[in-house]
Amino acid sequence: MVTVLDLPDDVLQLIFHDACAAYVEIWYDFLRWRDPRPQRPPHHVLSSVCSRWHHIVQTRASLWTSIYVFFNTQTIESRWAFIKNSVSEALAKSRDAPITLRVWGTGYEVHPERAENNSLRGIMTLLAEHSSRWKYFRWDMQGINLSPDAFLPTSLPLPILEELHLACSADSDTDVPDAFKHVPRLMRLTAINVAKIDLSCSQLKTITLSCKNVDNISSISRQLHNYPLLESIQCLWVTSTHPTDLVLSHPNVRDLSVPSSDWLDQAYLPSLQTLNCQRIPQLQDLAFLERSKCALVSLVIENLTVPRKKSFLPFAPLFRALRHLTMRCHIHDIEDFIENILVPVADMDVLPVLETVTVTVYPTVIRLGTVRQDAPSISDEPWTSKVLMAYREFVLSHHHLSLLRLTFHAAKDQAGVEETKAFRDLKDCERLRRGFKLETKILLI
After folding, report:
1. Counting runs of H as helices and runs of E as strands, what totals does the chain give?
2. Residue 123 has what DSSP assignment?
3. pLDDT digits (tens, 9 = 90+) for 175-208
4. Quick one: DSSP state of residue 213?
5. Which of 24, 30, 120, 335 is most buried, by the most CB atoms less than 10 A from its CB?
6. CA distance linking residue 270 with residue 316, whole number of Å
7. How far apart are CA 259 and CA 63, in angstroms?
8. What are phi and psi of 3, to 5 degrees?
9. How far apart are CA 194 and CA 8, in angstroms?
10. At 149, is the pLDDT very low, low, confident or very high (cuts 50, 70, 90)?
11. What are phi and psi of 413, to 5 degrees?
């Protein structure tokens, strides 16, 4: 039998790398609101097992390339000294390898003149001396109004930085620090509670935005054309309030996430292929697709209010290239869902190339089964049967469909149920349609 001690050095190195990464996540969760006494880094623990492990850990530079600085308002002087020593050791033993740097602070407001700020400033000064090796930089402040520009010089050489993550306090409303003004290889940017972005980065492909002041997103949106290779815009964790003067426009963006469809009333995205919209109060908001003349391939709707007396059919031409559809539907009337959504899309000429569909219906409770009775016959509830039959017609009419994933809310008294005939007929589509799969998930309420 093979033991850990028999594994090759390269395999052990991979295991050690994962162990150190897991330690970082556990340590971060533990430090959110308390500051335990300094503990040995995982590298030291692994090194103490045996001479072979010690040699692997101490000589493999890649095991030291993830550098993290975790602190909160309870971090004491001895802990700061421990952090600085750990950072110095990692910088030395990672040698010239590119490094991943994370600075996370949590807790209550920290006054700018408190001692821990001076400790942090010393650590950041040390790290800045190696900025030419930074490949990933993350600054994440939760409840602490600290901006990286207070701890970094106004100019830094950042020749290989590919990803920048700035998550500032909701009250900071800061700009991207001057130190990051010139980042020639930056490809991914996350800016949380950042008021303005003014970067020299022609390689930027993905930008993620979140602001307490949503009008800042409008300001940032006007800068998007400065990044010709931009492919993805993610507006996350923000209120659905429509920012004033918002224009999401870019010739090359293929992936977009927004909190509400009314953010798109002036959008022009001719290359758009994937759209994730948290809330679509009305389907008319998707008219920008016609204006953009884009061929949408994937659509995720987190909160679709099913229209009353208004069919999906007039909007179907906007989705003829759609292959993947995910919907979480809020239903006032199950008949509206059937007549305005399911029946129109059952036509084989509507959504003709659809391959995967995921649907969650709420708050309606749907019975996929009937509580067991002594009587041999089981009668379906009429509206339940209609829903399931409409799904069946939809599956049988769409020959490209390979997966239908349905999530239902069901009553808790359905713990012991027999499947209704309509549900069995829907499942039978797996037999009738080779290559098709039905997945169902029941959420008891």
Report:
1. 12, 18
2. H
3. 888 899 899 999 999 998 888 888 888 899 999 9
4. S
5. 120
6. 18
7. 39
8. -110, 175
9. 46
10. confident
11. -75, 5
Read off the pLDDT of residues 265-296 as tens digits, 9 standing for 90 and up: 888 999 999 999 888 777 777 888 888 999 99
Tens digits of per-residue pLDDT, 296-344? 999 998 887 776 666 777 778 888 899 999 988 777 677 778 887 888 8
State phi, psi for 406 to the nearest 5 degrees.
-115, 135
Q: Residue 441: beta bridge partners?
A: 407
Task: Decide: 375 and 324 in contact? Cβ < 8 Å.
Answer: no
d(CA 141, CA 55): 36
Measure the CA–CA gap between 430 and 399, rounded to whole angstroms: 12
Which tokens is 15 given?
């295991």
Q: Is the peptide bond before 382 cis (omega within 30 degrees of 0)?
A: no
The first and second tokens of residue 138, run together, are 């993350």
pLDDT number for residue 185 = 95
One-letter amino acid at 155 equals S
Cis peptide before 314 (omega within 30 of 0): no
Confidence (pLDDT) at 343: 81
Give the pTM: 0.82
- Calpha distance 222→196 (Å, rounded): 10
The 10 Å CB-count burial string (b at 16+, else e) for 78-99 is ebbebbbebbeebbebbeeeeb
Taking only Cα atoms into account, the Rg of the chain, rounded to an integer number of angstroms, comes to 27
How many whole angstroms separate alpha carbon 138 and alpha carbon 100? 8
Which ranges of 35-140 would DSSP assign to H, the alpha helix?
A: 42-47, 51-59, 77-93, 115-128
Q: What is the pLDDT of residue 366?
A: 52
Residue 301's beta-bridge partner residues?
277, 327
**Given a cut of 90, is residue 8 above it in pLDDT?**
no
The CA distance from 65 to 95, in Å, is: 9
β-partners of residue 200 are: 182
Residue with tokens 């093979």: 2
d(CA 397, CA 350): 10
Residue 106: CB atoms within 10 A of its CB come to 19
Nearest to 149 by CA among 112, 95, 94, 109: 112
CA separation for the pair 47, 57 (Å, rounded): 6
Residues 107/140, Cβ–Cβ less than 8 Å: no
Q: Are 219 and 192 in contact (CB under 8 A)?
A: no
Q: What is the 3-state secondary structure (H, E, C) of 138-197?
A: EEEEECCCCCHHHCCCCCCCCCCCCEEEEECCCCCCEECCHHHCECCCCCEEEEECEEEC
Cβ neighbour number for residue 2 with a 10 Å cutoff: 6
